[in-house]
Amino acid sequence: SEAVGLLARILTLPDSFEIVMHMAMSQYLSSEHNNPEMDELFEEEMIKRAGDVDKLINNSHYSHILRSLLSGGKREKLAGALAKGIFDYVVFSEDTTLRYEVESIIKLMFEKYFESTWKEMSNLMSSKNDEGSFVKFYLAFGFNMLHNPFPALIFSKENLPTVMDWCKNHSDVGPYQLMALTPLTEGDKLSESVMMLLDNYGSDKMVRTALSDKLGTFSSPVTHEDRAELIIPLTKHRNPDVSTWATLEIERLKYYG
Questions:
Q1: H helix runs in the chain, sequence order
Q2: Global confidence as pTM
């Protein structure tokens, strides 16, 4: 269209991307937006600027157009190109919580583009040298899970095989990290992901420590009695390391209760 052609010509000028996004916002704010040619132009331009995501993500026009593109169609190339930059932003930002613009984009990427999104996130937490990255991910995606959409998204039944395969291939750090991130409960029971981690890696002391920490956060039942009740089935776990831990943990919870 003529409008898209104009935007494309302006984009040939230096430092014009933010100006062009501003010019296009009226289109993307409209509930009737339906311009595949414009969408293609912005997708190409965002992929070209994938290395600048950390600078652009705080621009409200950029984040709005990006959400529109990612939600409006299946754009694997765009999601894959931007995922690394977005997670680099999370790791290196001085913020300890996610701004709305960033949170909404990452949530959308986990919902619609899990494979490429998880690939980039897990690449940044795949060795003991990545402990700093994991701490930032824990604060953003695992801490205070009562008000956090990410644990349930990452550890959904559909995504669990991918996550557990990664864990198997990174058994030096993966089990502890996943236990720290995973939802504690499903209904009134321990979650499937918690049980899988205990079944496969319950002899790893760090895994059990992460579960102890989780029982002490806002993600767990409110009272010490409820927390003890939750792990009573683990006293009969086939792994003696897990059953012994559960027995001692119940005694500790009852003591403080």
A1: 2-10, 17-29, 36-48, 53-56, 60-72, 76-92, 100-112, 114-123, 131-137, 150-154, 160-169, 174-181, 192-201, 205-215, 224-231, 240-256
A2: 0.89
Reference 243, options 198, 212, 177, 209; nearest CA is: 198
Beta bridge mates, 185 = 190
CA distance 170 to 186: 26
C-alpha to C-alpha distance for 41 and 39, rounded to whole angstroms: 5
pLDDT digits (tens, 9 = 90+) for 162-219: 999 999 999 999 999 999 999 998 988 999 999 999 999 999 999 999 999 888 875 6
Count how many Cα atoms sit within 13 Å of the Cα of residue 223 in the half-sphere of its side chain: 5
Gap between the Cα atoms of 181 and 204, Å rounded: 16
Cα–Cα nearest to 65, from 50, 43, 48: 43
Beta carbons of 242 and 198 less than 8 angstroms apart: yes
Residue with tokens 């705080």: 58
156-159-162-168 Cα dihedral, nearest 10 degrees: 0
List pLDDT tens digits, range 48-69. Answer: 999 999 889 989 999 999 999 9
43, 69 in Cβ contact below 8 A? yes
